[in-house]
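re: ur question from yesterday

yeah so i grabbed the chain u mentioned. its 278 aa long if i counted rite. heres the sequnce exactly as i have it in my notes:
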Amino acid sequence: MINFFRLILAGLALAMAGLVSAVTTMHFAIHGAEVKVPEVQGLTMAEAQRKIANLGLNLVVDNKYYSADVPAGRVLAQSPSAGAVVRREWRMRVTESLGPQRVAIPKVVGQQERVAAIEVRRLGLDLEETAQMPWTGFAPGTVIAQNPQQGAAGVERPSVSLLISGPSPLQRPSYVMPSVTGMPLATATSLLAHAGLKVGPVQTSYDTQPAPASSGPAQPAAPAGNPAATAAANAAGPEPAGIAPVDTVDPIGTVLSQSPLSGHRVEPGMTVTLRVAQ
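ran it thru and got these structure tokens back, copy pasting raw so excuse formatting
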């Protein structure tokens, strides 16, 4: 009996030792893959690269800024900051110093966008952002504002953003919508394309186009393909003078209706919807 309890105690001891060993192994496995971020601010890019690579981290240059205090080619800022604990293969982002600003910001207001872009890049600056807005004081495509301004000092980045003038809504040409109802589809499409308009999805219809009728009693037209109705109509004799058929069948491919309607004001590029006889 005593031997039995000794065996149980020995088994429990072995189990506890195995559990402690497993926890210790997991602890070293987890924390062994973690490193403390070093201080690289102020180092040259080559020095920072070596220091970071030795710890199994990756260096990424995120931005480049002018600095009157940090010489060009050195680390101006870093993220994560020194002392942070990260896992190996972590991306460490740094900002490189360009040194003091030595390039004068040119004046490009009043120039065409393409000419201004060439001038900015010729000086080694980046064209960061270009926006457009309607402006009546300049021709479309002209630079109406820039950031930084001409001759600005103490700028952070070697880049210039431009604001370009676009056509004013009041200056956009507009036309009166022509009437294409009754035309063949090909003719209507050609006419609308020549006017700078777009033809949208063409709708087909089996309906007939009602024709205007004069005053007086109207007699219905004989249905097509019905011999009995045709014979009855012939027996009734010719229609009285001045009486027109109520319905006329349009040839296949004829435009029955349009949107916008004729006479409405439209702009180039507007889409026109047509309904065509099928």
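noticed a couple things. The CA atoms of residues 60 and 93 lie 5 Å apart. also Residues 173-213+245-278 form a domain with the Trypsin Inhibitor V; Chain A fold (CATH 3.30.10.20).
anyway ttyl
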